[in-house]
């Protein structure tokens, strides 16, 4: 059963009108009927329906005339009103004209009940999404908040505007920015403001999955597809069916897997590892990377054809240090979230802690800010505000070593091998950043996964020498 959405049915043939009303009411919609376009127009004004189902050929005022009035005469009907037109076999051209004038969809007579129900359900979901988006826009204008994202700076408002524009569509989006800038938050907001919001949102970090398992994780596998595949397993695409899939750190995905992903995106079909048959997939794919995508393509980390397929729209998130005017509202919002998470009643953020935060360069961006706020909330007494005493020891000093690391030299003697020089550079950079691996990877212009692999190699080499 549906949720009582109001549907006005306009049809000049009494038996057809009665049949449609009974059918649509049986699905849980509230219905009202009219025998021609003039009566339909009058009832639309009085009843304010969410959906109008109208015949095209009627006396006094036909379906095209009714649609034109609903759309153009300034009657107060919003763009959320969905008009579905019914057409006889010989009137397809009229239906096409109706679509150009703003009809949501058309249906040929005799009416296919299954098709009509699907169109009504889709129109209802789209209307709900548009209404929620209007509410989000109003909230954004009043408070600088869109979904879970906060900010009133010029940079963030430009991002909000783009998110609003593309959220209701199915286009792929490539989200870029430094680690911790909120790329997954943007992806979740795109999902929450889309018609897919009731379906799953699945995020997978491509850098965190071993290369031998990533295809199984994304595409799924059949029992016996490889050693250890003891049962059938659905991949991320299947888990996100009807919803949204975020492929984080897309530049760390192996090239062979990127090729298979491109095929799925283009054909909307996938085959589990070890399966014979393909299956249809209906998933909106978003991707994120902390690399410069153009550089990643040039260096071979990201296939150019996959990049162009994903980069229909690009949302670039600036580092926190470039929009510090948003720090105070972000801190207040995070404080509220942490109060709820930990059952606390911290009263606010004192000016003393904000001054210290404004002087920090936030190499970890919004993620570092969230962790700092969470720690402070746990230390703070209920009823008191956060102050500078709740900051971590040495807060604000970590930016200096990082800056020095970015500009200092690592001297190696002549005759040092390239591998050894690389090892010294990595270890010295880690030392300068106080073992902040994310920041070190950014300074070295390598991925976090590559850094972890290098450190693993160094540990294994030391263990072998010790043996």
Explain the overall architecture.
By secondary structure, this protein is of the alpha/beta class. It has four domains: 6-131, 3-Layer(aba) Sandwich (Rossmann fold), CATH 3.40.50.2300; 144-317, 3-Layer(aba) Sandwich (Rossmann fold), CATH 3.40.50.300; 320-390, Helicase, Ruva Protein, domain 3; 400-466, no CATH class. It is 48% helix and 13% strand. The protein is built from 19 helices and 14 strands. The protein has helices spanning 14-26, 37-47, 63-72, 92-100, 113-143, 154-166, 183-192, 214-219, 236-239, 255-267, 293-298, 304-310, 327-342, 351-359, 365-379, 399-407, 418-432, 437-444, 448-466; strands at 6-10, 30-34, 51-55, 82-87, 105-108, 145-146, 149-150, 173-177, 201-205, 244-248, 269-270, 279-280, 284-289, 313-317. The strands form four sheets. The protein has a five-stranded parallel β-sheet, with helices on both faces. Helix 4 (92-100) links the parallel strand 4 (82-87) and strand 5. Helix 2 packs parallel to helix 3. The longest helix is centred in the N-terminal third of the chain and has 31 residues, at 113-143. Residues 398-407 have low confidence and may be disordered.
């Amino acid at each position: 059963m549906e949720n009582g959405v109001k549907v006005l049915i306009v049809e000049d043939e009494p038996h057809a009108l009665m049949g449609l009303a009974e059918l649509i009411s049986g699905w849980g919609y509230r219905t009202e009927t009219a025998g021609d376009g003039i009566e339909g127009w009058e009832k639309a004004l009085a009843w304010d329906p969410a959906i109008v189902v109208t015949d095209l050929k009627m006396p006094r005022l036909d379906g095209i005339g009714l649609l034109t009035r609903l759309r153009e005469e300034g009657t107060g009907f919003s763009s959320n009103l969905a008009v579905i037109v019914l057409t006889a076999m010989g009137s397809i051209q009229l239906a096409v004209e109706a679509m150009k004038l703003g009809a949501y969809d058309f249906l040929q007579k005799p009416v296919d009940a299954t098709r009509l129900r699907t169109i009504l359900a889709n129109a209802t979901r789209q209307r709900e999404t548009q209404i929620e988006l209007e509410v989000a826009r109003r909230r954004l204008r009043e408070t600088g908040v869109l979904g879970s994202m906060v900010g009133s700076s010029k940079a963030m408002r430009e991002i909000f505007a783009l998110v609003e524009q593309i959220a209701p569509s199915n286009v792929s989006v490539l989200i870029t920015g430094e680690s911790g800038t909120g790329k997954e938050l943007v992806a979740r907001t795109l999902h929450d403001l889309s018609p897919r919001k009731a379906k799953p949102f699945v995020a997978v970090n491509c850098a965190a999955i071993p290369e031998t398992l990533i295809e199984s994780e994304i595409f799924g596998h059949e029992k016996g597809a490889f050693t250890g595949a003891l049962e059938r397993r659905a991949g991320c695409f299947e888990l996100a069916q009807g919803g949204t899939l975020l492929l984080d750190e897309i530049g760390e995905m192996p090239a062979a897997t990127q090729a298979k992903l491109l095929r799925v995106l283009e054909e909307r079909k996938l085959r589990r590892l070890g399966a014979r048959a393909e299956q249809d997939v209906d998933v909106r794919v978003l991707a994120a990377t902390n690399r410069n995508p153009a550089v990643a393509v040039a260096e071979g980390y990201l296939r150019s054809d996959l990049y162009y397929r994903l980069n229909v729209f690009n949302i670039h998130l600036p580092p926190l240090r470039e929009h510090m005017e948003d720090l105070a509202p972000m801190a207040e919002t995070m404080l509220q979230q942490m109060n709820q998470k930990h059952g606390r009643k911290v009263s606010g953020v004192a000016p003393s802690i904000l001054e210290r935060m404004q002087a920090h360069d936030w190499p970890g961006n919004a993620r570092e800010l969230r962790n700092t706020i969470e720690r402070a909330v746990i230390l703070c007494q209920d009823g008191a505000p956060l102050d500078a005493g709740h900051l971590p020891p040495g807060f604000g000093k970590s930016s200096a070593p990082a800056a020095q690391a970015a500009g200092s030299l690592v001297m190696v003697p002549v005759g040092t091998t390239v591998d050894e020089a690389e090892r010294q550079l990595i270890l010295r950079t880690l030392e300068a950043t106080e073992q902040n691996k994310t920041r070190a990877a950014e300074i070295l212009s390598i991925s976090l996964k590559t850094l972890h692999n290098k450190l693993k190699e160094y540990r294994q080499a030391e263990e072998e020498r010790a043996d």
